[in-house]
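Let us work through a complete example step by step.
Step 1: write down the sequence.
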Amino acid sequence: VQLQASGGGLVQTGGSLRLSCAGSGSIFSIDNMGWYRQAPGKQRELVALITSDGNTNYADSVKGRFTISRANARVYLQMDSLKPEDTAVYYCNARIRSYSYTYTTYWGQGTLVTVSS
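Step 2: predict the structure and record it as tokens.
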């Protein structure tokens, strides 16, 4: 099983980016999916989470600006009104159930988002 993230880049303050993360491999089902980020010198933090039922949870710092969604084995993060403090490496995350009915948490490789002031 692999998670492949894409969509990062350089954007000006106030701009938008859309991150995508695709799961592939032996996947029976996917439970929670989420996006985390890690800024230089800081710990990795949760940005947004979406359950298999579509319930969402956001960090206070991104509420009203970011939107998480999912479809099949993909999870997306629409980021609007970006701020310099959103600059970080963004990682996707998914709790995946295999055909042997075991759950494992997987991480994507990270995609860099840089917001210039």
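Step 3: interpret the result. The mean pLDDT is 97.
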